[in-house]
Design brief:
By secondary structure, the chain is an alpha+beta fold. The chain has one domain. It has seven helices and ten strands. It has a six-stranded antiparallel sheet with strand order 2-1-5-6-7-8. The chain has a two-stranded antiparallel ribbon with strand order 3-4. Strands 9-10 form a two-stranded parallel ribbon. The radius of gyration is 24 Å and the shape is globular. It starts with a helix and ends with a helix. The mean pLDDT is 94. Bound molecules: flavin mononucleotide. Flavin mononucleotide (FMN) binds next to helix 6.
């Protein structure tokens, strides 16, 4: 009976409070101690995704990444600004920062992203001998439910698409999520995204592309039951290849490759 009297309300609160304090100290120390490891894992994951877009094995990420040179790019001038460590640049943060972003008006914003960072990154992929093979460009844009983040790999003359990959999105598995389907990604390889004036003209059509059609080289089969995600991908690819995305840089590179 005497032990029951000890269970007062204030003691219950004290125990609960102590438990909360101990748990929050544990959680915050874990967050602090693991931050470095988390950042290292994030950087490794990002490099892995770039290697996948480059078509380089990810068995040894650091070795594979030695074939990739990362350059900072000024989107408005189309000028490369030198080598950078890609893990030190946060394009998403920059796109939200009024001192580092460019706001897009509704006419420009076909990718539904409102603003972009003034600078971007370009990954130059070399072969084993150090000869430039292709370029990889970070891209993103709205699908149906989410913003899709990925990479577009272009050949060294910026004439054809080498690969399109997404590493983050929230589209529905089996519908818009089929953007990750290797069969669909394969369709993009070798497509010609520009008209004769250098304007991006990629079309993700409803249904299947007729290989005999005049525009077949610019067209991609739509994802069935996911027209809205398909449209989003079309728009984001055209946005980033256009004048408000990498257009100026691409024009320069195409000019010098002729
Ligand atoms: C639960 C649910 C999830 C859906 N997810 C997607 C999606 O991820 N992407 C998409 O384009 N459409 C999605 N849709 C279908 C769209 O609402 C729309 O019907 C579709 O994009 C039209 O494409 P279709 O003309 O090819 O059928 C989803 C529908 C439902 C009910």
């Amino acid at each position: 009976m005497a032990s029951h009297k000890k269970d007062t309300l204030s003691k219950t609160f004290v125990v609960a409070l102590l438990l909360c304090v101990v748990c929050s100290v544990l959680v915050s120390s874990a967050a602090v101690f693991l931050r470095e490891k988390q950042n290292a894992n994030k950087a490794l994951d990002m490099k892995k995704n770039i290697l996948i877009a480059a078509g380089i094995s990810t068995d040894n990420v650091e070795a594979g990444f030695r074939r990739i040179k990362t350059q900072k790019l000024d989107l408005q001038s189309g000028e490369l600004e030198g080598a950078v460590d890609p893990t030190k640049i946060d394009l998403r943060k920059m796109a939200k920062d009024p001192t580092q972003n460019l706001m897009l008006n509704s006419q420009q914003d076909i990718a539904g992203i409102k603003s972009i960072a003034q600078k971007s990154l370009v990954y130059l992929v070399n072969d084993e001998d150090g000869t430039l093979q292709k370029y990889i460009l970070p891209i993103h844009g709205k699908g149906l439910w989410s913003t899709l983040y990925g990479f577009l790999a272009m050949d060294k003359t910026f004439s054809q698409i080498e690969a399109l990959t997404f590493y983050e999105h929230g589209e529905t598995p089996g519908l818009g999520g089929e953007v990750d389907n290797p069969r669909w990604k394969k369709i993009w390889e070798g497509k010609l995204p520009f008209d004769e004036l250098g304007n991006p003209i990629v079309r993700v059509i409803k249904g299947r592309v007729d290989p005999q059609a005049q525009d077949a080289s610019h067209q991609i089969d739509g994802l069935s039951g996911a027209t809205l995600t398909s449209n989003g991908v079309e728009h984001l690819v055209n946005f980033w290849l256009g004048q408000n995305g990498y257009g100026k840089f691409i024009q320069k590179m195409r000019g010098s490759a002729l």
